[in-house]
Amino acid sequence: MRIHVICLLVVSLFSSAFSDSYLLPRPLVLQYPSEIVTRPKKSDEDVINLHCTSWRFAAETNNLSPWKTIPEECADYVKDYVLGKGYVTDLERVSEEASMFASSVEFAGDGKDIWIFDIDETLLSNLPYYIDHGFGLEVFHHSEFDKWVERGVAPAIAPSLKLYQRVVDLGYKVFLLTGRKESHRLITVENLINAGFQNWDKLILRSPDEQHKMATLYKSEKRDEMVKEGYRIRGNSGDQWSDLLGSSMSQRSFKLANPMYYIP
Amino acid sequence: MRIHVICLLVVSLFSSAFSDSYLLPRPLVLQYPSEIVTRPKKSDEDVINLHCTSWRFAAETNNLSPWKTIPEECADYVKDYVLGKGYVTDLERVSEEASMFASSVEFAGDGKDIWIFDIDETLLSNLPYYIDHGFGLEVFHHSEFDKWVERGVAPAIAPSLKLYQRVVDLGYKVFLLTGRKESHRLITVENLINAGFQNWDKLILRSPDEQHKMATLYKSEKRDEMVKEGYRIRGNSGDQWSDLLGSSMSQRSFKLANPMYYIP
What we know:
The structure is a homodimer of 264-residue chains. By secondary structure, chain A is an alpha/beta fold. The first copy, chain A, has helices spanning 2-14, 35-38, 44-60, 75-83, 85-104, 127-131, 142-151, 158-170, 185-194, 215-228, 241-244, and strands at residues 113-117, 173-181, 202-206, 232-238, 252-255. Chains A, B: This is Acid phosphatase.
């Protein structure tokens, strides 16, 4: 009986390898642990959990096509993740990994080693906004979000603030590269300072003629300029792959979790 | 009472934003769902699960420093993931996402549109080997693994076989780009064919002088050559970021899950 259940599990993963036309030279000897056989049947909640965890992995690894909202069936899952321990655990880990790398870089001492930070969902959290807007279930609403930004009350992501201070203390130049628009410069500076961020070297926002550029292109062009000016981009922290991929990529990139929205 | 518990949760995420020195202009109005307050205390198993899921995310998003073994405390977690529904669900999703993208590309019809596949943990599964070697808990053992490769019995990853057939049917040229060595060409071809893979256009293995190159460099150089020959790399499927990152990157990259080992 035990053997039968094991075989079913194997076939679900490797079905094609065991069909008649692709018969393997000899049967695989699979030593499956016994607990798999005795595990209870999955509840509906387990099924949703599995499905939404898989969706979240696909989002975080950049495997999904551009998406505008989170899957409806994952609304509670995303809410539980961002308000529970999962999100903060992930944020702490990426901060620690980045900090370890930052400490390991050997500096030339010429002031040309830089670290790039994105702002939204990287240094500042818009979670208070998303709590009121379905955690990504609602389609992004520019003017509503602008109103939130203009209040200037987005709190710091604590693990990112810790990394930020470490990076500044180590002697990196810090460049903030954000998709926010130039007209939000003052309120962004005020918000950053109130949230504890200080001593950055550049704050780069989108100029009016850059409004409709894809984020990947806009950020790549800004990184290209930095490289042209002789800077070495050692680290780059962002919650979107469009913060990290493209040209003039950083020596190491750090992807912060964000299961609520996607920016191409 | 309810309010108190809510505050603690918020502070854990945004602690720095609420300390005296960084006082925000006004308190945030956080509307937290009631179920968070009534949720039971996490068991030890929940804590390990949270920790290891976070580790797996960090691995899959390329946030970790190079690692040689999985964390000891995550041994059971990784085993349960790869033998349970989690891994196969993730493999099916990446196959479907890649398939949708492959179908959406408009072809020039000149035979220059290609799809790159890695082999190990992308087309063929070495899970039968890793079942006998601690699912990544043991340090990688070259000669032991070579013996397994030389048996030529690695089964197909069924969702990848489905994608592969779709990509071939759509008219892409298929290039297999693997870190396996040239001396394993014959057994690799035999294994691939027995597992159901056919009609690839190139199978690129490491030549003896490429043995000690980092995978990212080796694979980038091979992609550079493809681009020089006029090929358009539309898709690239691999379980390692060293399959996907570097120069001449693919239009879209697809990261298959692999929590068992890391290749720089």
